[in-house]
Design goal:
CATH topology: Rossmann fold
Number of helices: 4
CATH class: Alpha Beta
Number of strands: 2
Number of domains: 1
Order of helices and strands: HHHHEE
CATH superfamily: Phosphoglycerate mutase-like
Shape: elongated
Radius of gyration: 16 Å
Length: 136
């Protein structure tokens, strides 16, 4: 097992430790812009694209080291996972939110498809079952 700082959660600057209600009261305009999907440095912290910029290379480097038919388990926080999954499957950043949050102790499963990474499971709590598709 390796620890890598590139997989840490989104740094939210002065928003960290605040509730949504507190953020809305103190930083209402920025919060509203972020909820609309605009690129906002929440609390002066990171953009979602910057989280993907640091996390995805860590994941891809680990994938390259896997033996054939190997499995990589990446453990991180919901925001870092969502942005990484969105980037890996080729979604535009505006659409990363459509993946939804990741519940505690749940996971996403990606696999290689004919045209790149494919999202096989998201916010899962049980192991995926094989699906017969156009890639087999």
């Amino acid at each position: 097992m390796e620890h890598h700082k590139g997989l840490r959660e989104t740094f939210a600057g002065v928003w960290q430790g605040l509730t949504n209600t507190e953020i809305q009261l103190k930083y209402g305009d920025d919060y509203a812009a972020w909820r609309r999907g605009e690129p906002v440095r929440r609390g002066g912290g990171e953009l979602e694209t910057e989280v993907a910029d640091r996390a995805v290379p860590v994941i891809l480097e680990a994938v390259e080291k896997l033996p054939e038919d190997g499995t990589l388990v990446v453990v991180s926080h919901g925001g870092a996972i969502r942005t990484s999954v969105g980037r890996l499957i080729g979604l535009e950043p505006f659409h990363w939110e459509s993946l939804g949050g990741l519940s505690n102790c749940c996971w996403s499963v990606l696999g290689r498809g004919a045209r790149g990474w494919r999202l096989l499971e998201h916010n899962a709590g049980t192991l995926p079952e094989p699906v017969i598709g156009d890639d087999t």
